[in-house]
Amino acid sequence: MLMRTDPFRELDRMTQQRVGPGTWSKPSVMPMDAYREGDEYVVAFDVPDVTADAIDIDVERNMLTVKAERRPTAKADNVKMELSERPLGVFSRQIMLADTLDTERIQADYEAGVLTLRIPIAERAKPRKVSISAGSGRKEISG
Q1: pLDDT at position 1, please?
Q2: CA 79, CA 65: separation in Å to the nearest integer?
Q3: Gap between the Cα atoms of 37 and 55, Å rounded
Q4: Whether pLDDT at 90 is above 80
Q5: Are 106 and 117 in contact (CB under 8 A)?
Q6: pTM assigned to the model
Q7: Are 71 and 53 in contact (CB under 8 A)?
Q8: Under a CB-based contact definition with an 8 Å cutoff, are residues 96 and 63 in contact?
Q9: Most exposed: 63, 82, 92, 98, by fewest CB within 10 Å?
Q10: If we measure between CA atoms, which residue out of 74, 65, 67, 37 comes closest to residue 53?
Q11: How far is Cα 31 from Cα 12, in angstroms, rounded to an integer?
């Protein structure tokens, strides 16, 4: 039987073994997308195969921190692992939020391995019209 080898896959595997899984003190990077949609910012994090209770979201001042932990699945005693390429451990991402965002009203949804945060723009940061009041005629200076 012929086997194809990919030297880069082997290099990735060896690097992952050497670096090891992320820990709470030294988490691995979590990929994300960020964009503006109307009057809110949307940030989407890839956290596949993570349960919702293993995700932690904190906001302190303007620093948003998202941490997630992918735990090993329980296997029966008679299971022998042949290949394991999916990383386990802790993944994290920190984002500095602008003062123009309303951190009190962040909404978080988790579906199909994607954590989506919706952060509304604060009312004080939205453009608004300023009305001009006209004076009532001429004023005389007396003195």
Answers
A1: 38
A2: 37
A3: 24
A4: yes
A5: yes
A6: 0.69
A7: no
A8: yes
A9: 82
A10: 67
A11: 17
